[in-house]
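Aim 2, interim progress: modelling of the copper (II) ion-bound target.
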Amino acid sequence: MSLLTILLQVPFLPEQASSFAQEVDMFYLSLWALTIFFSVAVAVAALFFMLKYRRRRIDEIPEQVEGAMALEITWTVIPFLISLFIFGWGAKIYYQMYTEPKDAMEIYVTGKQWMWRAQHPDGIREINQLHLPLGKRIKLTMTSEDVLHSYFIPAFRTKADVVPGRYTMTWFTPTKAGTYHLFCAEYCGTQHSGMIGNVIVLEPSEYQQWLAGGPKEASPSATGQKLFASLACNTCHYDKDGGRGPSLAGVFGSQVKLENGTTVIADEGYLRESILNPGAKIVAGFQPVMPTFQGQLSEEQVLQLIAYIKSIGAQEGAVAAKPAASPAPPTAKASPAAPTTQAPAAQGGQKKD
Amino acid sequence: MATEVMETTSTRNYLNNGHTVKSWLLTLDHKRIGLLYLFSISIFFAIGGVYASLIRLELITPEGDLMTAETYNKVFTMHGVMMIFFFLIPSIPAVMGNFLLPIMLGAKDVAFPKLNLLSWYIFILGGSLMLITMINGGIDTGWTFYPPYSSIYSNTQVTLAGVSIFITGFSSILTGLNFMVTIHTMRAPGLTWFRLPLFVWAHYATSLIQILGTPVVAITVLALALERTFQIGIFDPKLGGDPVLFQHMFWFYSHPAVYIMILPSMGVISELIANMTRKRIFGYHFVAFSSLAIAVFGFLVWGHHMFTSSQSMYAGMVFSLITYAVAIPSAIKIFNWTATIYKGSVSYDTPMIYALAFIGLFTVGGMTGLFLAALGLDVHLHDTYFVVAHFHYVMVGGAIIGYLGGIHFWWPKMTGRMYPEVWGRISAAIIFLGFNLTFFPQFVVGYLGMPRRYHAYAPEFQVLHILSSAGASILAVGFIMPVFYFAWSVKFGKKAGNNPWMASGLEWQTSSPPPTENFTYQPVVTHEPYEFEHVEEIKNAGKLENKTA
Ligand SMILES: [Cu+2]
Ligand SMILES: [Cu+2]
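Predicted structure of the complex, ligand included:
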């Protein structure tokens, strides 16, 4: 009896705390309904035939039933149609999950054996925790310092591998305040099961309070701007054309013409490659003189440089020496620039939004 | 199946044709080689089983208390490696395929008997290297060997393990090659393609995968070993490589490898159901061609293991769609088997119990595969216990249940003795119960978010883990029982006679155990498989009154 009560207390679904959760659960439950229907149907038929047609005489030879074309077609076509339906529903959810969201607040995440680091738009960092404002669309841009990891929040029904050498993306809108599990889902070595943490969804006002209480740090783009100067990137990349390297203002999200005649879209992955492996794609009209920064930068620093490059709009100056850049209107493609551009002035980790 | 049916009364058979160790280790007889495999893979299964028990013991409590995280990681890796590469992949083809295929074809042996023996030696060499790896501390990469962890970060014996798998692969390739040539060239007079038992069709499809797929995994582990040993950048981005490339290469083999494990088992189930119900398999052609369809389509779906890997979203959609296409032939088989029982003459002997268990468990295993192939749902399910539960339903509930059913069915042919029927049924029932108790809770805990390969876990998952561990102990009892009653039966079992099941099929027309050359005459086939009015034993049984089925 008590065993039964314990069993009945085990939930069948995790908490629903993101905008995806409900539909994924509906889908899941529908598939169970289908599974139960088919398994029970097959089991009942098989058991019924076994009882009804049990061997009665040792020399019994049953009358042979030849295969029936109509039946074969029926049980090929019906599963096929059901499969197509499942495929379509799954593909629809997947498309939403993996399409870049518009107007999302962007948080940078780096995985490392065996911890998760996150940096918020105004610079606040945290380890193995992720504080989020309720109801706001959040996009995580993620990479790994070492091996494969995977960022899994069961209550949100989202997961994306965190891959060294690439940026991956996951997004969600938290819909319920509370504390939820964060798990590393891709095996990553000894302490894999310890690479866990909490996702804490706060009311927007509490989130602001939390931000204010955090240690004062510069935003990723402000730190990136400093790096841009200290690594002497600005000796080649001016704010206007005319340097040895192309101007980086407004490059993010634009089409870049390459020396070999092709074009690429300058996304995060391209910028990362341009910094770490500049020889891979040469911009048309320039010499391959840029040195590689492979091995000199942590993944976090690369992300900060990228955040800075993203923050400089078309008319913006890329002059790194002075933090004089005034807030720029975000370009269409760039992620919300508001927190990043105002941050240099507000070195004190101020938040607005 | 053959026109001539003779009672072979001679006591000379493949087992007593030489008793020395040398006569076994240098044998070219496919039946003896089959038994060599049976013996070796049983040892590997036992080792894999010990590792499984350690996993279930550790997971009784949420804290990692029984062993360190490092040990746990090695334990689940070795469990997977042993069970997949050294038990499941060789299981039915190397044991029953070797033993039965030539007899079912009415041939004296496989096409290349020496190559067949060589395959076993290669297998043993690979297996020994894996045992050495194990004694040297084992590996902790998971059976999937994902780099850059496996190539750069792990400081366990990855290279040695890679060499072992590389070598073992050749055993699989050569066995597949041997079977394919045998099926093409050594069929008895009159044995046309559509007179072949479905067991043979399934092995044909399996051989195709072994020949085409295994070289790819060999190349993959070789590349991994090169990166690890010489720092050649293939998979690690720090060396200029791409870790996702490995996943593509690995699953290009390892998805079809799932079918290397399940297709032969489906072949066994077709034989069991036909013979235990005395019915021709409903939709014989559909079942035969569905094996080939699975083998071919199986090569086009590897990307369904990578929906969250950063693979392109559109690639994911294509892989998902094709995966649903592969599900259809499996469904066709299930429906046709069930329809075969209809209006049959159903025996309740152990092989039929296993066949029934297969239909039930494989249906659940296959249907839960539809969950995982559904893109948006897999994002949540990927790398959780849901996946673990799913593939154990397919691999244990499907492949191993088929293997055990087949061993019970052909045991009298292999040894000349019957196993004790009552014990057979009891152990089958225990396995069925223990299995479901072990793995069903894992579907639930997986959806709740428990990731796989976790040494310690959140306390709210404990109840389900305890159920699972309790089930595992029952399952273990079910697996151990046959070892004892089979061993007992070799000496004390009832004499089987040529055809204890009154089955159709060439293998039941020769003596039990068969003579070294399989038949003392040249069999000629004049009709399709599973035509029971040609089975002499059934006709004769009617005349003898004192037996009941
Ligand atoms: Cu991990
Ligand atoms: Cu697969």
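Residues B 255, 258, 301, 304-305 surround copper (II) ion (ligand 2) (CB under 6 Å). The longest helix of chain A spans residues 21-52.
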